[in-house]
Design a protein that fits this description.
3% strand; single chain; globular; mainly alpha; Fic-like fold; 54% helix
């Protein structure tokens, strides 16, 4: 019998937790314990942080290859700035998260850093004030995000839930469930003018690290999402077209993706 935790949350939900726990591998905690840094890493360079930054950027359409970025970071190979600068910014944002406590203020700092070459300075780390739509490549609206006058309220609910969960006693599987749900809810709120996907994927891993320790930063979730990016986006779309009518009962397929990252060699 699976016992679902009894905890009060504002915007996150435990409705799918029982189903999630029934479907995840019993060896989840053991697999997590086996995570370790790459032998390619050094005092001034982290291989898996590079993997995170490169593949999260590739999900957003950046034309960057891991091999090139590795040569750039490890060997000092010089590429055109447009080729590496956004990934460098995201790499630095991951490093900032790795030495910071997860809260609203530090998320804003991380967002400001990762959008250094994406947004104008006065919009980095600040909530959007306009409407936000997600547009398909052929120009169709596929999602209408939270109304601007509700963004701060909804985001504060999420941060309040994160604070509660960071203090709660959770199993490894429960941590993965809530980390993926935080990722999904953040994306659906879409609080910033840009950089929401990058921030959400970082936030997911950051939550795991705060709960389970630094091994979380070796998890190759961004690579998994890139390798399955059509499934990743389809699972996000399953919830619906508009923020006010999202159906989180359809979120299980998305939530079950994160544990798969433990199987990437």
């Amino acid at each position: 019998m699976i016992i679902v935790i009894d905890i009060h949350l504002n915007i996150l939900t435990t409705d799918l937790l029982g189903d999630f726990l029934q479907q995840v591998d019993d060896s989840l905690a053991q697999k997590f314990s086996f995570l370790k840094e790459s032998e390619l890493s050094a005092d001034t360079f982290s291989f898996y942080t590079s993997v995170s930054a490169v593949f999260s950027s590739k999900i957003e359409g950046e034309n960057i290859e891991l091999d090139s970025f590795m040569k750039h970071k490890m060997l000092g190979v010089k590429f055109l700035p447009d080729y590496t600068q956004k990934i460098d910014d995201l790499y630095e944002a991951y490093q900032l998260a790795q030495r910071s406590v997860l809260n609203a203020a530090t998320v804003n700092q991380v967002h400001a850093l990762l959008t250094t070459h994406i947004l104008q300075q006065h919009r980095r780390g600040y909530l959007r004030t306009g409407n936000m739509f997600v547009i398909t490549p052929d120009g169709k609206i596929e999602y209408v995000a939270c109304l601007p006058n509700l963004v701060e309220k909804e985001l504060n609910k999420l941060y309040a839930d994160i604070e509660v969960l960071l203090k709660a006693e959770l199993s490894t599987a429960e941590v993965f469930f809530f980390a993926a749900l935080v990722h999904l809810v953040f994306v659906k709120i879409h609080p910033f003018e840009d950089g929401n996907g990058r921030t959400a994927r970082l936030l997911e891993k950051w939550f795991v690290a705060q709960k389970l320790g630094g091994k979380a930063w070796f998890l190759q979730s961004e690579k998994l999402y890139y390798n399955q990016h059509q499934i990743y986006y389809n699972n996000i779309r399953l919830l619906g077209l508009e923020y006010d009518t999202l159906d989180y009962s359809k979120a299980l397929a998305f939530l079950l993706m994160l544990p798969q990252a433990l199987d990437i060699g």
